[in-house]
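User: Last request for today: this protein with zinc ion, please.
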Amino acid sequence: MSIAIINYLTEIQFGCGAIRELPQMLAKHGIGRPLLVTDAGLVRSGLIERIGLPRAALFADVPSNPTLESVRAGAGVFHASDCDGIVAVGGGSPIDCAKAISVLATHPEPLEQYAVIRGGLPKITSAKPKVIAVPTTAGTGSEVGRAALISFSDCCKLALISPHLIPTAAICDPELTLALPPKLTAATGMDAISHCVETYCSPKFNPIADAIALDGLGRAVRAIRRAVDHGQDVAARQEMLMGSLQGGLTFQKGLGMVHSLSHPLGAVPNKPLHHGTLNAVLLPHVLNFNASVCAEKFVAMARVLETTPDKLPQLFETLVRDIGLPLSLSAMGVVASDLTDIPAAAVQDHSTPTNPRAFTAADCQTVLQVAL
Ligand SMILES: [Zn+2]
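Assistant: Here's the final one, the structure of the complex with zinc ion:
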């Protein structure tokens, strides 16, 4: 067995009203003039005003998938406004963008050199501004994760990964997720669920993360229907936010084939496909592909979800249908020609080495055909 690397714990304030702790948290971490990174929708919703950080500089130009250009623009505002820290408020996109801004604030361009598949991990140092993450969706777990996914227009979507990208602290307030519409609650929630499944099935030795992933899986699967159907149900929102956080805490084990496929699919030109919805569609098919090498883990997941191991893929398919998400890639608008380059990109993805069953481009082709 290789030596395990197990890292815990990010400072997390969790619970209804936790957002009120933000000013004290900034003071504690010596941040006097933060750059607030968010998106235009959250500014329009009035949330940013409600959070009320009078001395913050605002950068709200984060697109639905953060791009190199948005990271550059954010780093520009950081310097122009003499900021000394970053607060990221939003879903995975503002949080990932904020993480990449924190790199560019102190590290030389080009940003692409810090991507993990370009050998960038050791190039990201601790000499960078602190990031406080405030999630407003329950899905990505980016508030405690060490990755930032950035789109590069001349190639693709690349992941920056480093322990120094883990936010200094996170504020997880379920009340901030109450306004999330049903479709986004469903899609982001399935992202959280797929993180718990994939990190649990990753063959890396980390029983601590395994326990967290299984607990998060049960919590999120039990709560997601209520969170989708009754958005104001704070208890359901709290369970989803915890499940999402737990999925994020276990990222250090690595993900698997669901994410290997959804990362390049999310970068198909001119076709914005939601990451969580892609994962929801792919999850049952990838479970079928992995079943033969994951017998014990399927037993444990089935126990948590009160089913039998052979019925796990079907359980997730039923769940996806119940929460109103599409069951196939074609129902999302994907056509066969969109898939041409996906298998080769999936094999190269950073999530591929930790899928429990090794796979080739031909295997990806087969799974995609079934999912189409
Ligand atoms: Zn994900």
